[in-house]
Amino acid sequence: MSEKRKRRLTEWGKSLLIVLLSVSALYLVGRTQFYMDGSAIGQSWLSSVLSILPGGEETQPAQSVAVWSEGTAVRPVRAVVTSPHGHSGIQYDQESVERLFSSFANPLSDALAGCSAPEQTTAAKFQAALGSKNPGVYLDFLGGVPLADLSAWLSGGRAPNQALTDTARRLLLTVTDEGDVVLYYINEDTGLYYACETTRDLAERLSQLVEGISPNGAAFAFESGGPYAILDPYTLLEGGATPQPGRYASSNPVPLPADTGGSYGAAFDALVQSLSFHAQSMSYPYRNAVAVQEGAERLHIFKNGLVTYEAADLEDPRFPVQGEGENLTHWEIVGSAWAFVERTLSPLCGEARLYLIGTEEGEAGGTAVLIGYQLDGAPVLVGRDGYAARVEISGGAITAFRLQLRTYTYLEEGPMVLPELQATAALSALEGGGSELMLYYPDTRGDTVTAAWGAF
Asked: What Cα–Cα distance (Å) separates residue 425 from each residue in 220, 231, 440?
């Protein structure tokens, strides 16, 4: 072998050794998460180098936000069946409410699809229909639900009834004395009452569904009068045994370990990927949180379970929202936020269920959608904010969100709360007239949550 060829092989071997040593050094940096000026530098370098080497694992593409019509239909937390025999009401028993709702879901879907344009009515007419003995069902969703979303969810994503543009918490589907079928609701934003006629063929179906359901003494505050007259008229009073709601264990489903050893655990990685960040993204401690960074985009996961995000690039959004037209409608905004939060939180929240609280103006314009946790129909108020999630949508994309990660596991029956009459008297003493008396769970991020009466 010539001297020239020997020198060339020697230089080539030196170059290969340098590359291998460099890769090894970068690998060690990545494993130990080296920090400079509060930023981790190892993981991003390591990912860049590994991405050009053969056999490297491809990064997972970012997921787009769920389509507004693809969310699971929201469920009511209380229901009252009206029939010639009387009223039968259910609350603080989510399984029983959902079984009842499943029986009425198809008629309600058909009623929403066939509704005429809503016409304003009065509280007196709404209450007369609610207090009648005509076949019907009253549903309370605890928060404001766009009727167009409810129509689409119940019909499997079918185009919503364009006449239904309002948001409602309380609905009543009932047969009139004349045999017509009417859908009543209270507009959650304005407090106004509306009625719309729908498919008359539903009268027989409603009559069959309420047959065999026995009255149980449930009544609304406006029907009961007396000391209950100070309450919100639609406070549902069970009139039977004092509720004994469950006690639940509560915890953060994605805890941050004190000693990471270069990894924050499988639950952390799964959460990051569910929020459309790559598993190989650079992550580093930031105050009492971990920051996950891709370019200018940053996700913060706090030790107490709070997760925050603010969009950095509005021209190329990470979470685009799909609509049927050029501009998003209100129900497309709410439905998209619901589908996004449901996909993220439902696998983590244990025995809790989600409910739509409502909407408010976003901090930078647009619309903010608020979603809460509920346990057996009682709302859970997490920390100072109360909600489980707040999602801002503007310009056709999610621009910010705050998620409060909590998981709840049933332990046992909790302590018995005050009977409704004594709770009402206590509320009156506190000058809480006009409020709705309701059980709720305050969650201060301790180990357990227990229900108490509240005025809402």
From this structure: 17, 10, 18
